Amino acid sequence: MPGAVMRGERGDRGHRPEPPDSVQQLLVALGQLVDQAVERIEFQRARVELAVALQRHMLPPGLPELPGLHLAARYAPARDGLDVGGDWYDAFVMHDGSLGLTIGDVQGHDVEAIAFMGQVRTSLRALAQATSDTREVLGRANDLLIAMGVGRFATCCFLRFDPVTRDLTVSRAGHVPMVWATAGGRYGIALDNGGPPLGIVAGERYPVTHRRLTEAGALVLLTDGVVEGPHYPMESGLAEVAALVRAGFDADPDVLASAVVKVADLTGHRDDAAVLAVCYDGPRDDDGPQDDDGWHGFDGPHGFDSPQDHDGPDVPA
User: Fold this and answer.
1) Burial label, 169 (beta-carbon count in 10 A; 0-12, 13-18, 19+)
2) What is residue 202's predicted lDDT score, i.e. its pLDDT?
3) CA 71 centroid distance within chain
4) Which residues, in sequence order, are CB contacts of 177 under 8 Å at separation 6+?
5) Residue spans of beta strands (DSSP E) within the chain
6) What is the DSSP letter of 216?
7) Please, what is the angle between helix 21-58 and helix 111-127, to 10°?
8) Measuring CA to CA, how many Å separate 231 from each of 85, 119, 210, 228?
9) Rounded to the nearest 10 degrees, what angle do helices 111-127 and 134-148 cross at?
10) For residue 207, with 0-12 CB atoms within 10 Å meaning exposed, 13-18 middle and 19 or more buried, which class applies?
11) Residues 306/200, Cβ–Cβ less than 8 Å
């Protein structure tokens, strides 16, 4: 009997009962679900990396530079999440020798949004070779996107700068206003009137605002991902950018663009962000006497602008 007890005790210590079939099946199923979840995460991550690479490929490889005018741009994908957006910027010399500048954001956060962004950017550049009227460019692009039947829309700001006359014309389609500052200490947010986003209302006639640059300064175009987040109002973001532009109007545009895009960190950086910085050296000595100081058309307290817009054709095609 004592020997039997000893054998029984050894058996208890060395034997582990087999789990019931139902538990075994549950563990196998759980392992399969974990494997599938990991595969889906890896697939989605690869998809996002591919989409970001595709978006960067669709942005311009370089920016033009005219005498006295210096450009720099920054693009930052969203920091969190697996969505990708359709922000873009572009700058190019138009058929009349003026400089065209665009920045915008398309509806959606997926690969289709990136493809649509490429269509919008290409359309704007192509149309700007047929006319230098910013209203015409946005109006024709709007009608083209509607005719394509994609079912998406895009916000956009389109600028034309004439380096000879120093005239700046601006048309805006539902987009974030630009921020500016001058060597004379004036700065602000250009609260131009604008029209609806591109791709919504057929036959839309977009307002045009005229300005004239008469001293050194900087303009910064940006997308809402820079200045707005779920718990961060756009007004606060624009105020941050205005302070940066005011302090860095004479900085290298690369430095200015890098500083501005970091404002997205304050918003939570849940959306992608794009910045296009334009620094102007001021008129050359051979441009003749200037009729006043500052930039024509940038008016209002602290430079916060509410200029009048024009309804008729302003810039000849």
Assistant:
1) buried
2) 95
3) 16
4) 157, 189, 190, 191, 192, 238
5) 69-76, 87-93, 99-106, 154-161, 167-173, 179-182, 187-189, 209-213, 217-222, 273-280, 295-296
6) -
7) 10
8) 19, 32, 35, 8
9) 140
10) buried
11) no
Q: Which residues of the chain have pLDDT under 50?
A: 1-11, 289-294, 299-317
CA dihedral 223, 269, 278, 240 (to 10 degrees): 100
| DSSP SS3 for 221 | strand
> For the chain, what percentages of helix, strand and coil (3-state, to nearest 5) are there?
40, 25, 40
How far is 158 from 170, CA to CA, in rounded Å?
6
Give the model confidence (pLDDT) of 259-290 as tens digits: 999 999 998 877 889 999 999 999 876 655 44
Structure tokens at 276: 């296009």
Tell me the C-alpha distance between 35 and 26, whole Å: 14
Residue in the block written with tokens 């690369």: 254
One-letter amino acid of 202: A
Residues 71, 256: contact at Cβ < 8 Å? no
Q: How many CB atoms lie within 10 A of CB 10?
A: 10
Asked if residues 298 and 114 have their Cβ atoms less than 8 Å apart, the reply is: no
Helices 234-247 and 253-261 meet at what angle, rounded to 10? Answer: 160
Measured over the CA atoms of residue 245, residue 251, residue 253 and residue 254, the dihedral's sign is negative
Task: Match 């015409």 to its residue by tokens.
Answer: 136
